[in-house]
Amino acid sequence: MESDSIECVSSIDGLDEEETSPPHHQPSSKPHGGAAPSAGIAPATSVHELLECPVCTNSMYPPIHQCQNGHTLCSTCKTRVHNRCPTCRQELGDIRCLALEKVAESLELPCKHNSLGCPEIFPYYSKLKHEAQCSYRPYNCPYAGSECSVVGDIPLLVTHLRDDHKVDMHTGCTFNHRYVKSNPREVENATWMLTVFHCFGQYFCLHFEAFQLGMAPVYMAFLRFMGDENEARNFSYSLEVGANGRKLIWEGTPRSVRDSHRKVRDSHDGLVIQRNMALFFSGGDRKELKLRVTGRIWKEQQNNDAGVCMPNLCG
Ligand SMILES: [Zn+2]
Ligand SMILES: [Zn+2]
Ligand SMILES: [Zn+2]
Ligand SMILES: [Zn+2]
């Protein structure tokens, strides 16, 4: 836990007994050709290795360069090596390796997220484009407030958030959190909280933080869905904060964790509370921030095939 002074006191009204298996990406179709099992597509290793840049080890795409002695390297590395071949130190010149470019063109390779379940096979030159969009590509760690480089599928990240970031984990689709901060005058960008919710067999990240919006300090709460954007659209959520006969209500669609925490925050896609209002909601002498945020996650009905939301589950 970081050393900021926000504490989160929560009580959960949701059902604790929800026994749902973690989301598992199942390949929705067999690999082309049918016969190969999803994990068993053997890449053409030797040719594939030839197409790996010996300097940066990324796959090479045209223009592929070579030195006068035939050592290859990618176009990105070529601009960095000051005209010296990194392998033999000879002058590099400006020689394309057309033969290797042609070999690459004839290759068909499985998506590099094959081991994560992607069954697709692509011609070499369109593979990269797919991989950038592949729905099996690993997710970045959704934890904000530190530069964390962990990537993986959702079950791995859930474990990582719990064990390494000591994030609070809750089961249920309703929540009732109290955010307490003893010195609300200190609004720093680094002040934030993350709680993970598990409901409908999915995981959601509830973010709460304080930051400067222009000249004005604000608090913001928003939900991110641990999965892809198209799945996120199956869910909605509401957040409520208030006291003394006033309240603010936010209703929205959770954003995918594919969208960075910062991107969501900067688009104000959540419940934004001005500090004055937050202090008013806190009651007392306005020296301490005490915000009670309640909320609910529900599944939208348009998807009739599976997992229909039963209202009695939502308390
Ligand atoms: Zn390279
Ligand atoms: Zn060389
Ligand atoms: Zn893929
Ligand atoms: Zn992390």
TrEMBL record:
Composition bias, kind Low complexity: at what positions?
Answer: 26-40
**What are the record's GO terms for cellular component?**
cytoplasm
Query: What is the enzyme's main class?
Result: transferase
Establish whether keyword Zinc is in the entry: yes
**Keyword Metal-binding part of the UniProt annotation:** yes
Give UniProt keywords alphabetically.
Metal-binding, Transferase, Ubl conjugation pathway, Zinc, Zinc-finger
The residue ranges of the SIAH-type domain are: 106-166
Region of interest called Disordered, as start-end residue ranges on this chain: 1-40
The pathway entry for this protein reads as: Protein modification; protein ubiquitination
Catalytic activity entry: S-ubiquitinyl-[E2 ubiquitin-conjugating enzyme]-L-cysteine + [acceptor protein]-L-lysine = [E2 ubiquitin-conjugating enzyme]-L-cysteine + N(6)-ubiquitinyl-[acceptor protein]-L-lysine
Q: Which GO terms describe its biological process?
A: ubiquitin-dependent protein catabolic process
Q: Name one Pfam family in it.
A: Sina_RING
EC number(s) on file: 2.3.2.27
Q: What GO terms are given for molecular function?
A: ubiquitin protein ligase activity; zinc ion binding
Domain RING-type: start-end pairs: 53-89
Report the family membership: Belongs to the SINA (Seven in absentia) family.
Q: Which PANTHER family match?
A: E3 UBIQUITIN PROTEIN LIGASE SIAH (PTHR10315), E3 UBIQUITIN-PROTEIN LIGASE SINAT3 (PTHR10315:SF80)
Name this protein carries in UniProt: RING-type E3 ubiquitin transferase
